[in-house]
Design goal:
7-stranded antiparallel sheet, disordered C terminus, disordered N terminus, alpha+beta
């Protein structure tokens, strides 16, 4: 897809009123129209990392363990179906992008919560996010501009590992997390209500849907590409509806330059 040069920093091609309706929804076409250039994997990783930085609430999905491996007290708080082994469950949770690994979301794990019971039993985790244009986003006559189907979304696939206490202290992880979630002070490690601990999602791979498949990348982002994105690239990027995002003009004179 050909874009104005400044749109290197943008998440999607924001279709003009003269742009054609999408031809591919959940996959990229086998060959691309000369009117468009599909963003590269690295460009898409930048955009995903910006969403990660701007957001702070996600859906964490895990899988229930087989009943033979469940802790004795696993079902004491509820009465689930008789056999949940292998069934997935997705629940809202807080996260923050904190140093030293801003690409590995920091999570305040509550041991009694279903998500972390499942991870303790061996489940991997996916963290899912989607972009919500801000309320201040400029209006558009194009029905596809802010269509939820055209908004980027992605899932990070990996596992949760504890953050060593010296690292928590050295990088002020608690202050970083509370800056995004002041109410989380009530369940910080050491609280009198529930056992909790600091963890991070170690990203092994990311699956990205940048929007409609004829104008946005859809596919996997490898771990090395995800972690290689710089904070400067993230800071300069702009998403649909953000200040600084320039509307696509349909021009084919300029391509996104090399990163």
């Amino acid at each position: 897809m050909f874009l104005p040069t400044s749109l290197l920093l943008s998440i999607l091609t924001l279709a003009s009123t003269s742009a054609p309706p999408p031809q591919h929804l959940l996959s990229n076409p086998p060959s691309f129209s000369p009117e468009y250039r599909i963003p590269t994997v690295h460009e898409s990783a930048i955009l995903a990392r910006r969403i990660l930085n701007l957001s702070s609430i996600a859906t964490l999905s895990t899988v229930f363990p087989s009943t033979s491996s469940i802790e004795d007290d696993f079902f004491t708080l509820s009465h689930p179906a008789s056999d949940l082994g292998g069934a997935p469950i997705g629940l809202m949770d807080y996260y923050a992008s904190c140093s030293p690994q801003t690409y590995s979301p920091t999570i305040l794990a509550i041991s009694i919560a279903t998500t972390f019971r499942n991870t303790r039993a061996g489940s991997n985790v996916t963290l899912s996010l989607r972009w919500h244009p801000p309320a201040t986003a400029p209006p558009s006559d194009d029905i596809y501009t802010y269509s939820p189907a055209n908004m980027p979304r992605f899932s990070l696939v990996g596992c949760i590992e504890p953050i060593p206490t010296p690292e928590v202290l050295s990088y002020e992880v608690e202050a970083c997390f509370l800056d995004r979630h002041p109410d989380a002070e009530a369940w910080l490690p050491g609280n009198k209500i529930h056992q909790s601990w600091w963890g991070r999602l170690v990203v092994k791979e990311a699956y990205w849907i940048g929007g409609f498949g004829d104008r946005a990348y859809i596919g996997w982002i490898p771990e090395e590409e995800w972690s290689a994105v710089s904070e400067d690239e993230v800071a300069k990027a702009r998403l649909v509806g953000e200040d600084g995002y320039e509307k696509y003009t349909g021009s084919t004179e300029q391509e996104v330059p090399e990163l």
